[in-house]
């Protein structure tokens, strides 16, 4: 019996299986006019194809809570009605094919105002009409990116309010899961890590100060998000620069993550999606399942269930991760770009049935 293809329930939402689509930016929205940040044909095809392919949960890419929260001008957003309606139409299709639609809400902070990756990903020139002034906990640039402005108290209040407004819109768009993006060196991770947060006010300094913004965002989102729907948080478990024990080490560490996640449990977070890195360049020992040990620590040392992500590509590997209790589910990123039908093929290997069922039109192939 495969556990990978067993359903799992969070509050009132049941994912039909534990193979989930990781959030992946497509940088494919219009950059000017009424359709800025609006999901279009590309996004619908991209997301719905993976639902037909059998993934149990489809997470949209990092979707900006405000225009200045985008990474590039071509990112998706959820700060207006046009965006909200477009997502609602896609979500109806995802649900029609039996998968659960979820959204990752993000704010890029100092990594914003950037070119799309296939144009190099660097900062837009300051005089580019599409550029904007980025904000971050401290005025410390990331790599070659144009340095951000230090966020004022007003900026911080706006970030919290923008996440709450975005979550409220997401519920109107019929998303069933909201994931707060606190990983990969984007704004919330920038506040968590001592490498990027040099503030001396209540949002910096101590561990309690650095996690304050994320806790406020989670509280605000939980406050507007329907009680019967789950909230997930994506974390970077480590900056990969220091494995020193102690909460006030020089970078963000797995120990700090465990303490943070226990605080998130008290705020009603239903699952932590465990990734790593992104706040500074570091040597990362990339190999199959290289981030799974961080998920295992969350599973063993906190009361919050963890999902694993990162170079999970083989059916038996995914099955083992869930079967051994290292994670309750797996997110697949690039493997689902290569093969939208991975879940259905994996089920054949593992002798399992996939829910959602294959549409009748394709049944002869499976
Ligand atoms: C094209 C692409 C876009 C991505 N965009 C996001 C994103 O929007 N949010 C996020 O948290 N991670 C993003 N990631 C990271 C993936 O969610 C995932 O964590 C990573 O690719 C590792 O998993 P994999 O080895 O299965 O691809 C992106 C990855 C890729 C390849």
From TrEMBL:
Keywords: Flavoprotein, FMN, NADP, Oxidoreductase
Keyword NADP tagged: yes
Residue span(s) of domain NADH:flavin oxidoreductase/NADH oxidase N-terminal: 4-351
MF terms (GO), sorted A to Z: FMN binding; NADP binding; NADPH dehydrogenase activity
Cofactor: FMN
Superkingdom to which the source organism belongs: Bacteria
CDD domains per UniProt: OYE_YqiM_FMN (cd02932)
PANTHER family: NADPH DEHYDROGENASE C23G7.10C-RELATED
Protein name: 2,4-dienoyl-CoA reductase
Species, as recorded: Rhodococcus jostii
């Amino acid at each position: 019996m495969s556990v990978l293809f067993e359903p799992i329930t969070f509050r009132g939402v049941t994912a039909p299986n534990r193979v989930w689509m990781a959030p992946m930016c497509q940088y494919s929205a219009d950059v000017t006019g009424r359709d800025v940040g609006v999901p279009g044909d590309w996004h619908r095809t991209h997301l719905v194809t993976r639902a037909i392919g059998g993934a149990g949960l489809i997470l949209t890419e990092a979707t900006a809570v405000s225009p200045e929260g985008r990474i590039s001008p071509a990112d998706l957003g959820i700060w207006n009605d046009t965006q909200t309606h477009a997502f609602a139409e896609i979500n109806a299709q995802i649900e029609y094919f039996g998968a659960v639609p979820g959204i990752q809400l993000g704010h890029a902070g100092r990594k914003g105002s950037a070119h799309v990756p296939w144009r190099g990903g660097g900062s837009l020139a300051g005089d580019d009409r599409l550029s904007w002034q980025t904000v971050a906990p401290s005025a410390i640039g990331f790599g070659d990116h144009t340095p951000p402005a230090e966020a004022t108290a007003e900026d911080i209040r706006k970030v919290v309010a923008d996440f709450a407004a975005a979550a409220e819109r997401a519920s109107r768009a019929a998303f069933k899961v909201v994931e707060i993006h606190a990983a990969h060196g984007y704004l919330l991770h920038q506040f968590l890590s001592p490498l990027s947060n040099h503030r001396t006010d209540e949002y910096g300094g101590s561990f309690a100060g650095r996690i304050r913004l994320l806790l406020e965002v989670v509280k605000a989102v939980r406050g507007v998000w329907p009680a019967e729907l789950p909230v997930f948080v994506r974390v970077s478990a480590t900056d990969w620069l220091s494995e020193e024990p102690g909460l006030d080490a020089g970078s963000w560490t797995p120990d700090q993550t465990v303490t943070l996640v226990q605080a998130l449990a008290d705020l009603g977070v239903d699952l932590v999606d465990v990734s790593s890195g992104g706040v500074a360049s570091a040597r990362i020992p990339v190999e199959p399942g290289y981030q799974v040990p961080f998920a295992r620590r969350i599973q063993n040392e906190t009361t919050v269930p963890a999902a694993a992500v990162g170079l999970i590509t083989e059916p038996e590997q995914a099955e083992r991760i869930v079967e051994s209790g290292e994670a309750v589910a797996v997110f697949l990123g690039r493997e689902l770009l290569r093969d939208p039908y991975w879940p259905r093929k994996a089920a054949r290997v593992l002798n399992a049935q996939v829910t959602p069922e294959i549409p009748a039109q394709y049944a002869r192939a499976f």
